[in-house]
Amino acid sequence: MKESVKRYFTDRIIWITGASSGIGEALAKILSGTGARVIISSHEPEELKRVKEEIGKSKYDPFILPFDLSDPSAVEKAADTVLNKFERVDIFFTNGGVSTRTSAMETPVELDRKVMEINYFSGLILSKKLLPSMLASGFGHIIATSSISGKFGFPLRSAYAASKHALHGFYESVWTELKDKGIRTTLICPGRVKTKISLHALDKDGKEYGKMSKGQAEGIDPFDCAYQIARAASKNKREALIGGKELIMPRLKQYFPGIFYKLVTRIDPS
């Protein structure tokens, strides 16, 4: 990691949701090594303990805070716990989330709401709880993990794509309102990353898909993704697309929409 990137995180109080696996776990391990004070959260306490043990000796021991992103009251309580202990959070990675593998017509509204609660509202609640202390300190950075599905719709991802689109509207608005008061926001749009997201994706019955998708299995390493996220955040990027050849799709939509709409329905969504 470049020294300039490392300096951005050193001694910062950093909170990462979805930190028990994938991109969040990689971020926790990388940023602990910069000398940051890292808070790690997910709904899997045992996995969080594993991550802490694997981080090992660092300048500050990671603080474990498990809670369920789908429960608004638990989300608010978690924010209160963090603020009571640390008084503020300097950098917040709203990273935890869930995907889907079900068509728009077959997705029950209750599942749409659940995905939106986890992927969008949990981060919104936490951000609103953290922003006053960020403003008081004159600095705060919120990094939201969106997806290239936050840039365009995709088969079998209607609830997921909708929740990721919502992140862009909210955090871009926050930036326009608070950029002159020391608040930064960065939207991260990963393509295919080798994580367990497809294994835990929800089908129309709300059950886990349980399969590693081919695209996911061939994706970039989570640590590669996390390093790129850290670099984008340190450079105060408003948005960063991270991945492989699949990143051509949002660019095609922007510059060659006719070609994009011909291709998007031909991609294997499994």
Write down the domain tally: 1
Poorly predicted residue ranges: none
Beta fraction? 5-15%
- Reading the helices and strands in chain order gives HEHEHEHEHEHEHHEHH
Task: Provide the CATH topology.
Answer: Rossmann fold
Q: What is the terminal-to-terminal distance?
A: 34 Å
CATH architecture: 3-Layer(aba) Sandwich
> At the first level of CATH, what is the class?
Alpha Beta
Question: What's the total count of β strands?
Answer: 7
Going across the biggest sheet, name each strand in turn. Answer: 3-2-1-4-5-6-7
Q: Number of helical runs?
A: 10
Percentage of residues in helical conformation: 40-55%
Calculate Rg over CA atoms: 18 Å
The CATH superfamily name is NAD(P)-binding Rossmann-like Domain
Structural class: alpha/beta
Overall outline? globular
For the largest beta-sheet, the strand count, sense and barrel status come to: 7 strands, parallel
Mean of residue pLDDT values: 96
